[in-house]
Amino acid sequence: MANISQDPNKFRCPWCLGFEQYVKYHDQEWGVPVYEDKIHFEFLILESAQAGLSWATILKKREGYRKAFADFDYKIVADLPDSYVSELLQDPSIIRNKLKIEAAINNAKHFMEVQSEFGSFSNYIWDFVDGKVIDRQLKTLQNAPATTSESDKLSKDLKKRGFKFLGSTTIYAHMQATGLVNDHLVDCFRYEEVKNLAI
């Protein structure tokens, strides 16, 4: 596997190599099991914005999204007025796509509906993997799926609940990012570290 020059003893999933922000995200966040609703909401916003774009592009704009969407406070986002959508369409620090911006606000409302029904969004989403991290023990990137039966079911259920821009591929990316799935390659130094974080 490829490695990063300033830290040659640590082997990483090669998709993260290219710029330091990506490496930091891989080393500190990607694949860590998430049980906090606010973090789940942050990734849902970022991943829905990513549709058709690279994750590197979204990472570069992450702070812009944090500022634009009230530090990812779903209660505030759910109440954002139409006038604010127009304002965000002029904001170069985020992806200026009206449908994606409107989807973030729409999804915040449904996010809270899920919380009311299940006690937390975390309870809801972890139920799709029976509360346990799926460990694929990937040896190469070519073995990593773009979607799975779990992401298909979750995406379908979210769509039924009114969520938008969260197709199965996007949802599988969410499951990878928030640790419902451990898709670090087995020879990546983070594989065992993340595995040991699972409840």
Question: What is the structure about, briefly put?
Answer:
The chain is mostly helical and 199 residues long. It is 52% helix and 2% strand.
Q: What does the model show?
A:
This protein has 199 residues and is mainly alpha-helical. The protein has a single domain (32-195), classed as Hypothetical protein, domain 2 (Endonuclease III, domain 1). It contains eleven helices and two strands. Strands 1-2 form a two-stranded parallel ribbon. Helix 2 (37-50) runs antiparallel to helix 7 and helix 9 packs across helix 10. The longest helix has 21 residues, at 98-118. The radius of gyration is 17 Å and the shape is globular. Pfam families: Adenine_glyco. InterPro entries: Adenine_glyco, DNA-3mA_glycosylase, DNA_glycosylase.
Q: Taking Cα atoms only, what radius of gyration do you get, to the nearest Å?
A: 17 Å
The mean pLDDT is: 94
Q: Roughly what percent helix? A: 40-55%
CATH architecture: Orthogonal Bundle
Structural class: mainly alpha
Distance between the termini: 28 Å
Ranges where pLDDT stays below 50 over 5 or more residues in a row are 1-6
Q: How many β-strand runs? A: 2
What is the total number of structural domains?
A: 1
The CATH topology: Endonuclease III, domain 1
Describe the sheet with the most strands: 2 strands, parallel
Overall, the morphology is globular
Identify the notable features of this structure and list them briefly.
single chain, 199 residues, mainly alpha, Endonuclease III, domain 1, two-stranded parallel ribbon, Adenine_glyco, DNA_glycosylase, DNA-3mA_glycosylase, DNA-3-methyladenine glycosylase I
